[in-house]
Amino acid sequence: MLSTPALVLAMMLFSLGLVGLLSRRNILYMLLSLEIMLNAASLAFIAGGARWGQVDGEIMFLFILTLAAAEVSVALGIVLQLSYRFHTLDVDAFSEMKG
Amino acid sequence: METLFYIAAAVTVLATLRVITHVHAVHALLYLVVALIALALIFYLLGAQFAAALEIIIYGGAIMVLFIFVVMLLGPLAVEQERTWLTPGTWVGPGILALVLLGEVGYLIAVGDHLPVTVSEARQKGVSIALYGPYIIGVELASMLLLPGLIGAYHLGRRVSKESR
Amino acid sequence: MISLLWLIPALPLAGFLVLALFGGRFTRQQVAWVGCGSVGTAAFTTALVGWEFFQGFPDHESYHQTLWNWIDTSGLTVGVSWYLDALSLLMVAVITGIGFLIHLYSAEYMAGDEGYARFFAYMNLFVAAMLTLVLADNLLLLYLGWEGVGLCSYLLIGFWYREPEYGTAAQKAFIVTRIGDTAFAIGLFILFTQLKSLSIQQVQSLATEAWPVGSNLATIVAVLFLIGAVGKSAQLPLQVWLPDAMAGPTPVSALIHAATMVTAGVYLIARMHHLFALAPLVQEVIAVIGLATLLLAATSALVQQDIKRVLAYSTMSQIGYMFLALGVGAWSAALFHFLTHSCFKALLFLAAGSVIKSLHHEQNIFWMGGLRRHLPWTFWTFLIGAAAMSGIPLITSGFYSKDWILWSVWSSPLSHRWIWYGALLGAMLTGLYSFRLIFRVFFGEVRTQPTGEPGLAMRVPLVVLAFLALTVGFLEMPHTLGNVTLFSQYLSHALPTMELLPGMDESSETREQLAVTVSALLGIGLAAILFLPGSNFSRRGADLSTGRPLVTLLQSGWGFDRLYDRACVRPWFLLTRNPGELLDRGYEWLTVGAESCHRWMSHTQTGHVRWYAATVVVGTLVLLGLFAM
Predict the structure, then answer these.
(1) Most exposed among B61, B160, C62, C403, judged by the fewest C-beta atoms under 10 Å?
(2) Cβ-defined contact of A3 to B117 (cutoff 8 Å)
(3) Confidence band (pLDDT; 50, 70, 90) for B28?
(4) Among B93, B94, B104, beta carbon nearest to C624
């Protein structure tokens, strides 16, 4: 009964995360937006699981959680390296390509 | 119950909005924690109690603490610069994109067929059995993902990197 | 014991692998031990297997051994399996026995060469491939050996690869034989699609059941196989590669281009005799090809100046005799000539190698002479070889085999009288060119001072082969002389015996033999008149010297090289030159297009993370939009 509104909520959160990812230049905020999007995806899975009365949704949530943990630890390491090397968190400054 | 859900949903959306618009990193993180806790409530309402607990412990706890550590390691952040970067113009394009996306998915959800929700009461047992039964390979893969994550974080997190730019 | 059959090809292969992998680290002596030892043990194993085979003979006419499945798909099962019968045992015995003698000879002949280990590695690989060819139970494995010997031939002709000419000769041999091999492969495809089998025995019984005599399919397959055999055995019209193949070291010429590989075509036709029996027209063509090649090669051999080229043309000519015998249905006679020819031609090449080595790699017979006294061992063995090749009656093996062929040609229902006259003329020419060599090289005054006789490792093979060249013939003697039929009895279990025309009796055989004897002696006598130093013709220096158009034509092997150059090579070059550029332009456009696309696309690679994220989002939107529609 709540799964359709939960799905809509998930979509709203995902869109917000997307807006944040695309509009912020600070890499830290981009990571936060990424976390929001991951959470939205988890919510969609949970809502789906509730909708069909199956456990798979929650298992997917667990996998997303694992993925997020691994991703955050590596991404934050990269953020630290970037700030050491470029002395800024501006993603646009990190480009060294000629294209 | 429905009221609870809508309140939590509203809190989540508002807190998320603050996260992506805030110029102060620590404030943004606190808003994100609020959003996560509200999301955990929604999980609970959807019958996923275990997921709700994990959301608070791991997301709201462990992962956010990681972020806060990094913010502290990075030192004082230039709030003024953040404010100049956040001109209204930068919002237009992403905002339109996100609206289109929302519209499309909303349309898909609206036209989809609706079946009555059946929430089974004792699902946690099922989750555990499924996790270590048919999904055991997923568990193994997750562990294989976490180990490189650990090593990668250790390697990347070192302050002095030996290779030059 | 007979189950050791797999060892026979495995041992030379192992020798090749050891030499190819570790040859660089071995001393010369070790290389020689491995190279000769592997073939020697293979020869020894052959003796054991042959002994056991004879114990059960003729109750067990063939022995079959499957090692493993090579290819196993639906409808096609090909095993690595060996088939031993009287025919393949004969081939194996010649390959390992004579192969071992030639390896032994090479150990000394090649001693000063820097590619010593490489040489023995190639030679061992060749022996392994040749044994695979003759022992193969199915046509695919036979084809593997067939291509393997072709590869080794290429590698060994171009052994001294620093000389561009030798490389060209190697390529020529490879490409020309490739024409035949392609035809052979197409023949295999047709056989398989029609009969659903590649096993040699099975295919032949199926073909005999399925196809009537003279049917189109049988003729087509037989023609394709014949083209393959013609390419490998250097018969008309694919004979042009053999004279140039003499660029390789002399032991290579002895082993590959005289004793074994070039007779693979003879083996193939004999092995597939049931198939060829279904196509009498093709058999007639075989006889005509044999006759034409033997005359063409014999006349060319008359005027060559290079000692090895003389021998190369003589090889072509002798294989022409074998084809002639196959063509008239005298299978056993062809194989008997193969056996005697392997002995005396290997002997001639090895003796020629000994001459060449002692004259500091001088190969022109006009710079030789008077070697009789300086190189007595070489002289006597060469003389025995030449006598066997020209068929001096009664004492040499060549007489018995050639006489058997000529008698078969005379008495076969498949033959014509004019073919016999041609073959008789060939016998005379054989004597003429063989003794031209003897008189030029070993008589008269010394023109180049030789360094002396070869050592023991070279002398032993010469003596053994000389002994064989004299005595092998006694395995089979005609009715009029001794009537020994050991060889034909032995082979009659693998090959059909020939029917005689009615009215062929001993008196006609005696007359025929007299004709053969007279023609051979006539050739030798003519050689003595023309070329023996001190004779009238010789004193006038008239050794068919260069300059005259006929001689030039003969020296170039009847101008086939020029003909092929005009008819095939040049038109092809012409064809590829101008339109080729047009074709190239198409490909150039392709590269230009790819480059401009790449330049255009590289603009999207900005390095801006948010740009990438935005493109991902746009892509997702497009996909979702398609989905929503």
Answers:
(1) B160
(2) yes
(3) confident
(4) B104
